[in-house]
Structures are given as structure tokens and as C-alpha cells.
Amino acid sequence: MSRKNLSITFLYPSKRVGGAQLLFVRLAIELSKFPDVIVNVVDYKDGFLESSLANYSKINILHYHNGSVVIDEATIVVTPLTNLSDLTHLIKGNFVSIKFLFWAIHSSGINYLMKANFRKFFLNPDNLKSFFKEISDKGNLVYMDEANYLAIKNFNPTCGPPSYMPIPVTHFDVTPSLISNKSDLINLAWLGRISYDKVYSVIKIIDEIRNYKGKYKIVFHIIGNGEKYDILEKHLKNSGISYILVGTLEGSEIYNYIKTHIQIGVAMGTSCLELASFRLPTFLIDYGVSEFPLNIKYNWMFETVNYNLGSHIDSCELRNHNFSEIISQFKSDLSLGDRCYDYVLANHGIDNVALKFKNHLNKIDFISKDQIENIQTLFNPSIFNYFFSKYRKLRGF
Predict the structure, then answer these.
(1) pTM recorded for the entire structure
(2) Range of 143's domain?
(3) Cα–Cα distance for residue pair 35/247, rounded to 1 Å
(4) Counting CB atoms within 10 angstroms of each CB, which of 154, 238, 321, 372 has the fewest?
(5) If we measure between CA atoms, which residue out of 140, 130, 11, 4 comes closest to residue 78?
(6) Pair 206, 314 in one domain
């Protein structure tokens, strides 16, 4: 592959909106601005990524059809780590000419790889430890933050220092919220999917508001949707708090709503970067798949370390403030929005991340075809592979 023509193929076909999808769209757009980079994006026909990139003629769309995409030219495939187990299902083509960059963008990804899709019944994780060390040490595995690195490090403690590739954001706003901070009413927003690993984060904020004993009235705006929406609605109806179910917003809709209705935000992952990029005071919450402990603490966006944008509630790093302290600081410190904004600009600006990403891709090497095939055999032994192929077809993957 000539350095004069760096070919990058983003592999994450999707029919829905989410943080990972936005990540790949934004990075594809930014990388397409380099004259020596060819950008391909794999997606369903009329999928979210293809629709978002319709006006970008320099980006090639490779259609994902019947559960796979054909890739038969030299390229670097960039895909979430969770796709490692399904490469031979996802890609039909010549693996000899493909380099891979796996991006750990969710710290539960390693657990998903080992247990999801019935693999927990036959997969021996010990057989994969040396492979994970190799791709991590060689740079074929990069991490969006420390939480993702520690998840792999816990899986194999011999892994060397991490290659961090932080999540980028594209827009930065120089104007503050249009809502005054001087009234006794506080408009707090959650931004993000209502998924199995996030619904209890939202429920925790609902409980914090319900138990808040301060002098301010808090209205909770929930921006997002997802498969656990019914659990959220049931909890809200019994909570007694003031709330607004906003639903899913995209693009300028998010900007307009935040600017005209919201004073403070809470989120994790890409969503907290979105909020902070609007100069909104933003604090982080962790994720989990069951009810949170009674007493937990939070960090402001600018207090995070090693790009962390949320950890599992059972293994989160030290946090600094309880909920009442967050509210008090919000009312007394008018610099919080600027400090959150400055942190995001310095660490997650799209131009800096794209250049770092491009330079990293120019340095990575092939994972051998034999290694790929061996790993795929571990994840997909013959009998399982036969039935899993039929299952994927039935589910329309």
C-alpha cells in the first residue's frame, strides 16, 4: 500500500443513530480532506452512515448486503473491537491485502467478545490472551480511553502501554446557553441512548433528583431513545420528579434544544463531548446493567484523566462530587461551562484526532492471514459457524 494513497475502510454498518456511528461519520469526513487518503465506509443501503455522508463525494460507500461486504483491494479496515469475532462473516475478500485496526470504544467489549452469541459456552479466553497482547503492543488495537485499556489489561496483564485514540467532536460553540443561571429552576439534560447498559445510569439521576434536598427545582430533560425505554418510563411515572421526554434529536436539533432549554448536562461517551462542546457544564456518569449503589460521586468533564468518558460502576476510578455538590457548584461557579469546553477542544478536537489517526495508520502492519484464520476458528468452530451463519441470516445482520 503506497503511503501516497492511504486507503481506509470504516466497517460499522448501522440502521440507527448512536455514538459509534457518529464517530465513524465524523472521522470519515475529516480524513477525506487529506489529498493522500482514500476513505471508504461500509453501510447498509440507505443506512445511517450512508445517509449522513450523502453530500461527500470523496467518500466511497461500500454496501453491506446479506450480512457481509466485499473488500478485495488493499486497505486498512477500521472497526470496533467487538467485530473481531465475526470478521469472516462480515468480510468477503482477500484477507492477505487487508490491514486491521480494532478500536476499543466500549470497556465491556472484551466481555461481549467472550460471551455474546452463545460463545460463553465453548470459548476458552486463555487461548486469546497472547493475540490480544500482540495486537495491542503492535498498535493494531487502540483505545478510546483508559477504561477500555484497563479492561484489556485485566484480561491480559502482560499487555504493554496503550495507544490512545480519543473520540473526536467536530463542532465547537462560542456562545453560552440562552437560559439564565440565576433562577431557582435548573434544567438538567441526559443525552444518549436508553440501552441495557445505560438505562440504570439515567434511573440513578432520576433518583438523585427525587432525593435532592436543596432549594432548587430540577427539571430533567431526557434526550434519546432505545430498547430499554419502557423500563425508564415506568420508573419516571413513579418518581414524582418533573421531567420531559424529548426523544431522539439529530444534528442542529440537538444544538437548538440544548441552547434554548438546557443549563447543565450529564452523559457518558460521545454524548458528554457533545454537551461540553456547547459550553454546557457537563458531568460524567458511569454505566452498569443493574441498579447503582446508593451513594456515588461524579466528575466534571474537565476532571477526567486519560480520556475517560465513563467506566463500569463496579470498577470506576475515584470521583470527586456527590449530586448535591454538583448542583451547588453549578450555581456558584460560572466558569464550569468554559472549562468543560476547553478540555474537549484540547483533547478531542476533530482536526487533532484525525491527524493522529492518520499518522498511526501509516505505522501499523499486517496481522498475518494465518493468525486471522486461527482467531476466527476459535470464535467460530465449524459446527457453531454453520448454525451462527443461519442465525445471522435469520436476524438480518
Answers:
(1) 0.83
(2) 6-168+354-395
(3) 39
(4) 238
(5) 11
(6) yes
